[in-house]
Amino acid sequence: xxxxxxxxxxxxxxxxxxxxxxxxxxxxxxxxxxxxxxxxxxxxxxxxxxxxxxxxxxxxxxxxxxxxxxxxxxxxxxxxxxxxxxxxxxxxxxxxxxxxxxxxxxxxxxxxxxxxxxxxxxxxxxxxxxxxxxxxxxxxxxxxxxxxxxxxxxxxxxxxxxxxxxxxxxxxxxxxxxxxxxxxxxxxxxxxxxxxxxxxxxxxxxxxxxxxxxxxxxxxxxxxxxxxxxxxxxxxxxxxxxxxxxxxxxxxxxxxxxxxxxxxxxxxxxxxxxxxxxxxxxxx
Length: 284
Description:
Elements: E1 25-29, E2 59-60, H1 61-80, E3 90-96, H2 97-108, E4 115-121, H3 151-164, E5 175-176, H4 180-183, E6 201-207, H5 209-218, H6 224-242, E7 251-257, H7 264-267, H8 269-283
Parallel strand pairs: 1-3, 2-5, 3-4, 4-6, 6-7
Helix pairs in contact: 1-2, 5-6
């Protein structure tokens, strides 16, 4: 197949199926905050970013999804002799922004994704700032704040999110999230279609609430009380929506990864392996 970005260099590893096991293609899609080596391998920059007006917003998530489709089509044909991805069980394992990418992939290429394992997916439809109430909004009542939550703490949390996590902020990788909320406005839809005219197998794993409170404070984010009241509940509700992207009998979760903050694959790889094995046992 023709190369859309022939100057880009990619490094990947391929592990063939062993024995008589039916082959499947399992793809690990990384986030922005942890190096690609948290899974394995590395990648080059998108060559299109070089001439972009704003290099930190050089390409969007749909561009990534289309590049991924080309890569997977090429890998399947060259390494597995399979030229139609709908004939190959495809399982996408994702962390953080990778959660948005795999959802978009399944939407853009319906009928090709057999299983999805979400590991603390990015809050695709959020600007992150609005997770916390706005003390400066007209009519805001300070007495409505929960116990041990102050207006100063709310202001500080919103400022931190604005500076570090708002979609208007670019990334060193050149991936822009500016239009992500428009591409994925709801966590529970649209429903996804797998290769058998039913939904894919979906497992949703979130961070452990207690572990994330500690991690987020150490990152310079909100104090534990604010994470407990706002962030954890917001994220859990989002994950509940992800679990509805398929039929109930093909959905699992949301689960909390014991001892894991946002980077579940780093903090609890045993759980990731277990849940991936569970999906593979259902499809092979």
